[in-house]
Amino acid sequence: MVSDESPGGADRDQVGLLEGMATTRAIRRFRPDPIPDADLATILWHASRAPSGSNRQSFRFLVLRDGERAGQARSLLGEAFRAEWARKQGEDGYLTGSGADPGSRKGRMAATMQQFVDGFEDIPVVVLATNVRERAPHVTDGASVYPACQNLLLAARALGYGGVITMWHELVAAPLRACLGIPDEVMLAATIALGRPQGHHGPVRRRPLAELVYEDAWEQPAPWAVDPDGTRFTGAAPDRLRR
Amino acid sequence: MVSDESPGGADRDQVGLLEGMATTRAIRRFRPDPIPDADLATILWHASRAPSGSNRQSFRFLVLRDGERAGQARSLLGEAFRAEWARKQGEDGYLTGSGADPGSRKGRMAATMQQFVDGFEDIPVVVLATNVRERAPHVTDGASVYPACQNLLLAARALGYGGVITMWHELVAAPLRACLGIPDEVMLAATIALGRPQGHHGPVRRRPLAELVYEDAWEQPAPWAVDPDGTRFTGAAPDRLRR
User: Fold this and answer.
1) Which residue of A229, B6, B57, B232 shows the fewest CB atoms closer than 10 Å?
2) Cβ atoms of B225 and A41 closer than 8 Å
3) Which of A 15-34 lie inside 8 A of B, CB atoms?
4) Which residues is A186 bridged to in the sheet?
5) Domains of chain A
6) Do A10 and B16 touch (CB under 8 A)?
7) Does the beta-carbon distance from A57 to B206 stay under 8 Å?
8) Strands B162-166 and A186-195
9) Largest CA distance in chain B
């Protein structure tokens, strides 16, 4: 059976599937507007449509808003993020050269990161994406949770929100687990910040497709792997930003 | 800047973003039609729009079609998949009870799996999704490749194709690496089969959203996490299929 609509979201489904993927940027600056419950449910419902290993649906989304433990968890995360950004800022050269120029690409990224970590506790919604393991940790475990995280970000985009995935919760994994009662066998897969964007979604920059696609064997070129007209490029962020 | 179109795909972008996520099923039965190079490029281009750790774009897609080494790799995979399915078929009770009834849900799944593994070498396109590591393997490495895999499946859906992610390449990881020249530091993240579907996309079944979403702490209910009208449910596949 082919469905012509998506339950609960069809009336607002104005962004095309391809367009949505091409223009969902990482959003780190948010307006204070809350996300209504119904929108959050729509976002998480679409997240949960993603595939997972044997369709076990081992992903669990823990939403942190204004509850008591959510507040404690957000404080833990906020402090860790500020410490990590302070460290990274020095290490990755955001304090010197073009990083110190507020008008440069790197300088703007630094300002965005500072705003993100400084205001972390006030971000409208934080979702902790987790995966309930049934075996010892394995490097492909993420196949059962990161597709859902991507759907989550795309669904947020469809409803006019935006977000970003970060792994910096790993710096406070133990106290975070204790605070929220998350068992050890549950993988902390991602922290996702969500809200109404300051700024805009739009075309993302990536490497030329030919650098990312091989055919027949490792590093064998795929001559047909060409970028469409209008594609904007970037090198890998850390290298390019250092220039 | 807000873009109104997706380079290279806008004219065919007829499926809505939310609808696409809600109706992208795992497709394991394929028509013999090849995927034209331009469509494959569009699919992989959208895959590569996904986020990755620090936007490093460490994902690499190795396309296996009719090349010499692709043929060898597909044979390795096909043999492994057939052996694994034969094993799983017995272990997961596909040969007894409802699994032995061709008209049951489980029986239909068994027939689909048999067709998938029997015809693996003839599936139009197989993509090996990989991730180039810069550190020791870590359980969150998949955050840099599985979002792209999900985009890949959604982009295929947008163009009228379908596919499925499997991890069964792990049974032949060593010979597969040798055959294709894939270095040890590259993670074999997923094998994705792609082609024009026999059968159709349509609404996927998942658990009730309330089982997948918590608020404020682990296993604390989120009363607002309700499924939209028209949602169809399934329990976790392995348990439910056993009934």
Assistant:
1) A229
2) yes
3) 15-24, 26
4) A132
5) 10-204 (3.40.109.10), 207-243 (no CATH)
6) yes
7) yes
8) unpaired
9) 58
- Which residues pair with residue A60 across a beta bridge? A130
Q: What is the pTM of this model?
A: 0.94
Q: Which structure tokens are listed for B31? A: 């028509």
Query: Which tokens hold the place of A5?
Result: 């609509």
How far is Cα B153 from Cα B193, in angstroms, rounded to an integer?
10
**Interchain proximity B15–A19, CB inside 8 Å:** no
> Does A215 contact B2 at a Cβ distance shorter than 8 Å?
no
Tell me how many helices (H) and strands (E) chain B has: 7, 5
Strands A213-215 and B59-64: parallel
Residue B180 DSSP SS3: helix
| Cross-chain Cβ contact B231/A45 below 8 Å | yes
Residue B132: phi and psi, rounded to 5, are -85, 115
Predicted ipTM of the assembly: 0.93
**Which two structure tokens, joined as six digits, stand for B14?**
């007829």
Give B-chain residues touching A189 at CB under 8 angstroms: 140, 143
Q: How far apart (Å, rounded) are the C-alpha atoms in residues A237 and A230?
A: 20
Say whether A13 and B12 touch across the interface (CB within 8 A).
Answer: no
Query: Rounded to 10 degrees, what is the CA torsion of A11, A9, B2, A168?
Result: 170
Distance from CA of B40 to the nearest CA of A (A): 8
Q: How far is B29 from chain A (nearest CA, A)?
A: 15
Helices then strands, each counted (H, E), chain A: 7, 5
CA neighbor of B208 nearest in space, from B240, B224, B231? B231
A218 touches chain B (CB under 8 A): yes
Nearest CA in chain B to A150: B147
The dihedral built from the CA positions of residue B94, B98, B104 and B106, taken in this order, carries a sign that is: negative
* Cα A167 to Cα B48: distance, rounded to the nearest angstrom: 20
Residue numbers in A near B113 (CB within 8 A): none
Q: How far is CA A241 from CA A89, A100, A104, A105, B219, in A?
A: 12, 12, 10, 8, 41
Each of the 243 residues of chain A gets a pLDDT tens digit; together they read 334 444 545 568 899 999 999 999 999 999 999 999 999 999 999 999 999 999 999 999 999 999 999 999 999 999 999 999 999 998 988 888 888 888 998 899 999 999 999 999 999 999 999 999 989 999 999 999 999 999 999 999 999 999 999 999 999 999 999 999 999 999 999 999 999 999 999 999 999 999 999 999 999 999 999 999 999 998 644 443 333
